[in-house]
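Model: You mentioned two targets. I'll fold them one after the other.
Researcher: Yes, keep them separate.
Model: Target one:
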Amino acid sequence: MSLTFSPLSIDMRGDYTSLFEKCTDKTSDYTFVNIWAWSDERKYELAFAKDLFWPRVTNPAPVYWAPVGDWEAADWERVLPEVFPQGMTFDRVPERLAQLWGERLGSRVALEEQRSEWEYVYSVEELVALRGNRFHKKKNLLKQFKREYVSEYKSLGRDDVEDILEMQQLWCEWKSCDDIPGLRAENHAISRVLKKWDCLPGLLCGALYVKDYMVAYAVGEPMTDDMVVVHFEKGLAEYKGVYQAINQGFLENSCSGFKWANREQDMGEEGVRQAKESYNPSHFLKKYRAVWKG
């Protein structure tokens, strides 16, 4: 059978989210907030077949992602041959689905770890407390920020969107976003999410203020009952320790009901990997490239 794809639209959120909730191994890149944020950049499309959503990105070239829905109930020995009789390669396949395919399809599917797509998961309690030698440098930077600046953390809502975008613009001017494709795309992704606040229920957002001036903000959402994902986090660099402060403040004040904080993947960038590893992840949400041989 052939899949009929449609460009991602905000109207798909309800149907998509209901199937995402059935996935037994959720990762942050499959949340609707994430695919909506990056849709102008990656040109997401969705097709519905066999009680599953089949996502793919089409920019710069078509790449299929893992299907979204009730993996445990799907008859994979029948579904994949019918949908992709000639075979297909899937990227960012969460570990549980990779295991299912390996168990049920055997040698007909080849699995390869995609280390650059593994998501970093941290203990919320540890990142708030910053106890012990493992967090010594982070704790010192946080102390410097608190000693140098009288700051206040505020939870934000729809009425604060323009203020967040104003600070984001300052951050972009400092980073020369217009000259760097990745940062330019991220800036647009942040704007897409914030401007659709009312259509994306569950967003969590908070900011640090120094003398009523926003110096950092974070945006996230619940991913499971015990895990929050931090999609965006920005701070003004002239405030030393600001990233340690917003990281702690956001988790302590806006995410205290969660056990785990997901800070997404490193995309294979060494500097990003070092930064994420420096916060001592508890574990990873692993993902794989799966080649279904047809």
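Model: Target two:
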Amino acid sequence: MQYFDTHTHAVSADTTTYPPKPLGGTRSEWSQTRAVDVDGLIRSLDDAQVERAVLVQASTVYGFDNRYAAAVLAQHPDRFVGVGSVDFLAPSAVDDLRRLIEQAGFSGVRIRVSDGSTKVPTPGSGLTDERMRDVWDYVTDNNVPVCIQMHSKDAPKLAEILTAHPTMTVLLDHLGRPDASGGAPYQNLVELGQLAQFAGVHLKITPPAIKRLSEQPDADVTKVLAGLIEIFGAERFTWGSNFPASAGSLSALLASIEGYLPALDPESLAAILGGNATRIYTRNRVATPLPYTNPGAGLR
């Protein structure tokens, strides 16, 4: 079994070279109390026997300054792929994406739209903000996977974007926060299920997703996952430890996710634990990345 973790973070102890500049102005609690740098992250991946991982830009630490993640990718190209962050509303958004993807070797990009946090404001009017049109065109035309952190109530807005860009590849962070209230047969999953018509939509199983589901009245996490897999198909799921943002060792976080998965055939299990991520993230990487400087960090 090959394990590919699609959601990890790393934070440098060198705050002079990589000064914190979190989105919303408030640094995340986890990054101040249990942050790990790339070396600590690699040790945790080794302990969990995870072969590869996606390093997701720690936007609640660095905002849109992707330099530390870029340095990690340059140092460990065989271990990590990168998902960076740019300001989707900025006039320079597409140019910033080109530098991130086509020069610095990142494999994807992330946007936080509605995650329940009052510390990170929703960008503009959300996913359908007209200023994002060129970004959606770019990521679709260049097969760049987009991680979207949102609530299932935003599914209609995402469906509107995907109707105009039906080949876009999307990964919904933390399962897209599905509504499992009311108990079986979980009829409210139809809210998120309307996105199943778009073949590029994938769901990411993470500890925060499991925690949120477990806190919903009458929700059985395993049965909810089974329902979502029935709707979307196993070929459209990945997993992410969210380490170290989620408390606990990476090994324990992975074991917890595996423990909640429904009974699956070996091919489907292998796809969720590694195969799907490999397909999504290794198709358009830059062979020799160029040094990356962040336009917002005064380094041009």
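Researcher: Noted. Anything on target two?
Model: The mean pLDDT is 93.
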